[in-house]
């Protein structure tokens, strides 16, 4: 599986004219090395972590790219999403993410929440407005409210805040490859190039 994925990746780079660009990816210019390395959720895998905020228009535009990218991962690579609390006001959405995760409905709600904010222009910035969004989807509003300020949710957010400090990113979207590398929109310059750099770093990690 890994060999087939790597072959496909090389072919894609050649077809898109990016093979030369790949050789030009430079630490400190196109991505940043994280020091010290941040422990990942699965040390025996290559873990790719997308850090985002539902209210971020750049994250909204990046989401289709990362959805396509994460749909066919090779063996040994796992993808996870982490809602950012880099800005304290983003924490309302982080709580919503984990409350919905506890309800096992993220597959149903992740894109819907992005769309509600950026396409439907809904102001979902508080527990009440987010609970209304959940209710409109036909989900259990009471359970959502119970989860929202629950101990597991608050614990996860505290852990994320500490990890984000170690990652050193200054905005979102940001992608962390195996706790070692930071790929950011500001460094990459475009969504397409973010994906190319992610592929380059993942391939590098798989080869070790």
Explained architecture:
By secondary structure, the protein is an alpha+beta fold. The protein has a single domain (2-206), classed as 3-Layer(aba) Sandwich (Glutaredoxin), CATH 3.40.30. It is built from ten helices and five strands; from the N terminus they run ααββαβαααααββαα. It has a five-stranded mixed beta sheet. β2 (46-52), α3 and β3 (77-83) form a beta-alpha-beta unit. The chain is globular and about 50 Å long. The two termini are 16 Å apart.
What is the structure about, briefly put?
It contains 10 helices and 5 strands, in the order ααββαβαααααββαα. The chain is α+β, with helices and mostly antiparallel strands and 208 residues long.
- Radius of gyration equals 18 Å
The domain count comes to 1
CATH architecture: 3-Layer(aba) Sandwich
Share of residues in helices:
40-55%
The strand order across the widest sheet is 1-5-4-2-3
- Overall shape: globular
Largest sheet: 5 strands, mixed
H-E string: HHEEHEHHHHHEEHH
CATH topology: Glutaredoxin
Unreliable sequence segments: 10-21
Round the mean pLDDT to the nearest integer and report it: 91
> What is the CATH superfamily label?
Glutaredoxin
CATH class: Alpha Beta
By helix and strand content, what is the structural category? alpha+beta
Q: Strand-residue fraction?
A: 5-15%
Straight-line N-to-C gap = 16 Å
């Amino acid at each position: 599986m890994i060999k087939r994925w790597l072959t496909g990746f090389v072919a894609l780079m050649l077809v898109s004219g990016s093979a030369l660009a790949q050789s030009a990816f430079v630490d400190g210019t196109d991505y940043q090395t994280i020091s010290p390395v941040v422990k990942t959720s699965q040390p025996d895998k290559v873990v790719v972590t997308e850090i985002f905020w539902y209210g971020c228009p750049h994250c909204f535009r990046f989401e289709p790219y990362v959805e396509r990218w994460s749909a066919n991962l090779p063996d040994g690579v796992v993808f996870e999403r982490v809602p950012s609390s880099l800005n304290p006001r983003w924490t309302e959405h982080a709580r919503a993410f984990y409350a919905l995760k506890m309800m096992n409905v993220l597959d149903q709600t992740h894109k819907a929440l992005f769309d509600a904010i950026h396409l439907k222009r809904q102001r979902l910035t508080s527990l009440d407005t987010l609970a209304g969004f959940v209710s409109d989807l036909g989900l259990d509003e009471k359970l959502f409210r119970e989860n929202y300020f629950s101990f597991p949710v608050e614990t996860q957010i505290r852990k994320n805040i500490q990890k984000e400090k170690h990652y050193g990113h200054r905005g979102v979207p940001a992608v962390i490859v195996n706790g070692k590398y930071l790929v950011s929109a500001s460094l990459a310059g475009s969504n397409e190039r973010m994906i190319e750099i992610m592929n380059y770093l993942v391939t590098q990690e798989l080869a070790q």
